[in-house]
Amino acid sequence: MRRLRVFKSLVKDSLDTITHGSKKYHLWMAFLTFGMLVGMYCYSIQLEHGLSVTGMTDRVSWGLYISNFTFLVGVAAAAVMLVMPTYVLKDIDFKQAVLIGEGLAVSALIMCLAFVVADMGGPSVLWHMIPGIGVFNFPNSMLTWDVLVLNGYLFLNITIPFYILFRHYQGKEAKSRVYIPGALLSVFWAVAIHLVTAFLYQGLQARPFWNNALLGPRFLASAFAAGPALIILVLAIIRNFTEFKIQDKTIKKIAMVVTVAAQINLIMLISELFKEFYAPTHHSESAYYLFFGLHGKDALLPWIWTAIPLNVLATVLLTFHKLRNNFKVLFFCCFILFIAIWIEKGFGLIVPGFIPGPYGKIAEYTPTGIEIGVTLGIWALGAFVFTILAKTAIGIELGKLKYKKNS
Predict the structure, then answer these.
(1) Within a domain: residue 111?
(2) Among 41, 166, 293, 342, which residue's Cβ finds the most Cβ atoms within 10 Å?
């Protein structure tokens, strides 16, 4: 009964916190709300007319939605790079950032599920994904495993921070014996969500572009580069606009993680390029289409030739210790690295897998305004959710949100 009272008080205080703030905060939330409304309007058009309003066809059946889904799975998995040092290795330098990282993971997972709903055409078909009710094809379908691990990871990333914040809200320390088992499980689960997503593509024999043994490891390397890069950018914004001060050494340690992961990701990219182009076969046509165009079709050239230089530039700059420790350079590198990996794991991975088609036909894909509107709306939703979670968590950690026993 007491816990219920504390929970009600926490909800009340949280609502009070997220509805009050500076002028910049209210402008930010208004901007995100507008983005979500635009996304809802575009989605209503898609619900009315079906997926025909998107750029997807029977030739290219996965587009902008699944590209963002694949990328955001990696962003969600990246939280493990803060969870493991903090909860498992007891590294206090990461302690300030771990709750922010887990908040980003929750937001990313919510966006992942939203992109899946958008790609399926509408929420009315989601019952197919419910075990025991829909056609779930467990355990043979890799998509089934993907749904299970994503929802399981979302549960872990909600419950562990909630328990810690719930205890801190009451002025108590969280008991390690309660959250450490979950934290350990989340470390392995984070790796699983990305590997299973990679296996989903690798298991499609008719798509040789994805039949690559490096796909799983490269998914992890790119995730542990882009995810922590985003965390660094978010931490920079938080320490500039809030009283929650993140120490320089925390950001520098996360920057080291980004650097190593980016270097490994670049080495794997070079290995893939060697495999595709040194001794090409007819299975290399997808890669040729992506990097050089095929039979006069070259819609993806501007994308991939923007991503590769950005990736190389960010990795090279981060490799030098002095440059990495210059926060202006670091933030710039994190931003361009994030954009580069978003392109590589989005259009650079998903769309070429469908080109050319089974009979050699090249049907190019270009997202429509409706797709772009829905996508921006979902990103606005994720940012909105994260802002709410971060504002509440920061209030509790700063001691501004406390349980009053007489409340």
Answers:
(1) yes
(2) 342
pLDDT under 50: residue ranges of the chain: none
Asked if 170 and 403 touch (Cβ cutoff 8 Å), the reply is yes
Q: Note if the bond before 139 is cis, omega within 30 degrees.
A: yes
Q: Where are the beta strands (DSSP E) in 305-399?
A: none
Cα gap 105→111, rounded to integer Å: 10
Separation of alpha carbons 356 and 362, rounded Å: 5
Distance CA 139, CA 128 (A): 15
pLDDT score, position 93: 65
Q: Is 4 a domain residue?
A: no
Nearest-angstrom CA–CA distance, 279 and 276: 7
**What domain range includes position 127?**
14-397
CB count in 10 Å sphere of residue 243: 10
- 101, two tokens: 């990282």
Cis previous bond, 280, omega within 30: no
Residue 381 placed within a domain: yes
* Beta carbons of 226 and 78 less than 8 angstroms apart: yes
375, 68 contact by CB (below 8 A): yes
DSSP letter for each residue of 153-206? HHHHHHHHHHHHHHHHHTT-PPPHHHHHHHHHHHHHHHHHHHHHHHHHHHT-TT
89-109 residue pLDDT tens: 676 667 777 888 888 889 999
The pLDDT of residue 125:
76
Q: Which two tokens stand for residue 113?
A: 């599920």
In a domain, 196, yes or no: yes
297 three-class SS: strand
Phi, psi angle pair for 114, to nearest 5°: -65, -40
Quick one: tokens of 148?
């299970």
Query: Which among 346, 336, 288, 294 has a CA at the least distance from the CA of 315?
Result: 336
Task: Return the residue matching tokens 């990333």.
Answer: 157
